[in-house]
Amino acid sequence: MKVFLRRLSRDIPDRNRPSVVPAGLMISDSNTPLSPAAPAVRPHLLGLTREQLAAWAVERGFARLHALTLWHEIHQKGRTTFTPRDRMPPRFLQRVDEELAQDRPTVAKETHSSDGFTRKYLLALADGRLVETVLMRYHGRTTACVSSQVGCAMGCTFCATGQMGYVRHLTAAEIVAQALHVDAVLRETAPSTEGPPTSAPALAKPEHPSAFHRHERLRNIVFMGMGEPLHNYDAVMQAVDILREPSGLAMAGERLTVSTVGVVPGIRRLAREGRPVSLAVSLHGATQEERATLVPAARRWPLDELMDACREYTAITGRRIFFEWTLIDGRNDRVEDARAVAALLRGIPAQVNLIPLNPTGGYDGRPGGVEGARRFQDTLKAAGIPSTVRQRRGIDIAAGCGQLAVG
Ligand code: SF4
Prior knowledge:
Layout: H1 2-11, H2 50-59, H3 64-75, H4 90-99, E1 106-112, E2 118-124, E3 130-138, E4 141-145, E5 149-151, H5 160-164, E6 166-169, H6 172-188, E7 220-223, H7 233-244, E8 256-260, H8 264-273, E9 278-282, H9 288-294, H10 297-300, H11 303-317, E10 321-327, H12 335-344, E11 350-356, H13 370-382, E12 387-389
Parallel strand pairs: 4-7, 7-8, 8-9, 9-10, 10-11, 11-12
Antiparallel strand pairs: 1-2, 2-3, 3-4, 5-6
Helix pairs in contact: 2-3, 6-7, 8-11, 12-13
Bound molecules: iron/sulfur cluster.
């Protein structure tokens, strides 16, 4: 372990040499101080809340209004460059340039699913690291799946990100930039033949060249991309605060979903801090033994501890939890597995999201079938637990759950 951590810190300044901690070797509480710091030395403009930017401006003798204008232009209007004609004085803009980093991730590669509903962006960060961000459209909604880390330390066996190991946390600015990028894509999507956005069908026909509509806005953000969000708690919550800001992207709390593989301290902290986000907990196994084989983090935070934290979360917040269950054929998709889930979730306001396993190179399980999913759902329903079977989207471009990874 020490050897890996030494190697990790030694490698950070070298942008050309990958520094990866193999999966499962760095499982610790959220925001471990052992995690390498963000690459930017200067504070980043995108990583400041509206009030933080206003305070920054006032401290330097500028009018609060200038900061609020700048913040609005970036987060509401999607602007990336500014001139004095934008109702902000040159001195103010110059000071922003001098003191605040403003780099944005660049698109290294863009892929579209064959049905037109999913787009995946490989984004290059300022230090050359790569992450993936996915834009999905279904049921008339647009959703961004954003990454919170480069790689992941949790090592879930069926997940491509887990298989690549952990590299570093993303900063709040890098997370916000992903959402802004997707929002900009939606605004700029070339006019299609499908008519104005207000008449957009719930699901565009697959043969259409684009399932997206000009001037559409981002509706939902899920922190289900690369990385474990609660392992990078501070940056993720800073990003959440920025994304919820009414004069920015204005994401209502329930339209922001933070997922976790079961980082118990993070769940308890989220409950105490009271941010109105949706919480999704990945279960995948209903006994400690079974779960630990799929989710190594379960050894650090055992199932009974996790369920205690979930009960505490729902009691404090009054919100239900979404439990994610990857259906693996013959492994955890049997009726007895569904019964075990029902028993585990008894008394917890919950919804179960069933996700047929998506293929990854490092895991040879097969996805649970339609019939198995239906039986699973029926069993949960009989126990009074609502559930959905997730639509599989973007599998042909490896943009589905558990498939994100960079080489
Ligand atoms: S499923 Fe999530 S927590 Fe598990 S390894 Fe993949 S990215 Fe990390």
